[in-house]
Amino acid sequence: MRTAILLLLLTGAAAAEPLLIFTKEFKGSNPPYFEVHVTKDGKCVYKEASDDEQPLDLQLSAGETEVLFKLTEKLDRFQRPLESKVKVAQMGQKTFRYENGEAKHSVTFNFTEDADARLLADWFEKVGSTANIYVVLERAVKFDKLGVNQALLQFEALKDKGRLVSLATFLPLLDRVAKNDSFLNMARSRAMQLAEAIRTTP
């Protein structure tokens, strides 16, 4: 009996999937709340409410996922304080959370001087930027064909600044624009160039 229980416990531990969760609450910002979940296989979920009924699913690259989990390890899986003693204005309440089976650790801060924590928070901010521009582009493609080129310009600007992740997620939208002559020629051309750049970038 004890052996069976031990095997069940070991099986459960082996099946546990490390999970990173980031939340940011900042009244007056847009959005005022967002939440990101990332598993070790790169599956990423973005929500703008804890009970968001229409979350956005993204697939991070192996390299992007590795960066997130390496930073988490450098931060001791969030088992130590990160809040700076320096008094600063409110910059939004941010929470890192790590879960792996029964291991669950979290830390909340407004401002930190820890370089690794700031870098990790910035990565999650990039996920937020990615989700926001995806929604803008998707809506334009579906409901505002004349506005697609402007949405593509916004997407391109964020891409060039390195503020986006999971670029392959955009390929179906870009291909849809590039191959449909109901869109403006400039939009089709820009979408084609952006898709080609994403496909050829290592």
Strands of the widest sheet, in order across it, are: 4-3-2-1-5-6
What form results from the Cα inertia axes? Answer: elongated
Instruction: Return the string of H and E elements.
Output: HEEEEHEEHHHH
Residue-averaged pLDDT: 92
Task: Please characterize this protein's 3D structure.
By secondary structure, the chain is an alpha+beta fold. The protein has one domain. It has six helices and six strands. The protein has a six-stranded antiparallel beta sheet with strand order 4-3-2-1-5-6, with helices on one face. Strand 3 (43-47) and strand 4 form a beta hairpin. Helix 2 runs antiparallel to helix 3 (115-143) and helix 4 runs parallel beside helix 6 (185-200). The termini are far apart. The relative contact order is 0.12.
